[in-house]
Amino acid sequence: MKDTLLHDFFLGFVRIHILYHASHGPVFGLELMEELSRHGYHIGPGTLYPILHGLEAKAFLKSEKRPVSGKMRRYYNITAHGLKALREGREKSNELVQEIIKES
Description:
The chain has helices at 2-22, 29-38, 45-57, 80-103; strands at 61-68, 71-78. By secondary structure, the chain is an alpha+beta fold. The protein has one domain (2-103): Orthogonal Bundle (Arc Repressor Mutant, subunit A), CATH 1.10.10.10. The two termini are 27 Å apart.
């Protein structure tokens, strides 16, 4: 139970990271895995792509395929719905951080 809760907790952070980076321009899977790794989230394609597909299914992201070096690469862009979710996530994260800092 504890590991599942912690796993879900960190996947929430991963989703916010994805929305944040997509808010600055189109992103793709490998780029996101490398960026997330720099923040200590070492996730593979079996975790990342279901998250991306889920965010797209919920209209937080939209994707398009573009040719890159003879292959098709899927790029993800944030939607208006995703921007709203990112703003709300930022507000809730800031509120939580302030409470944690105050308790220290």
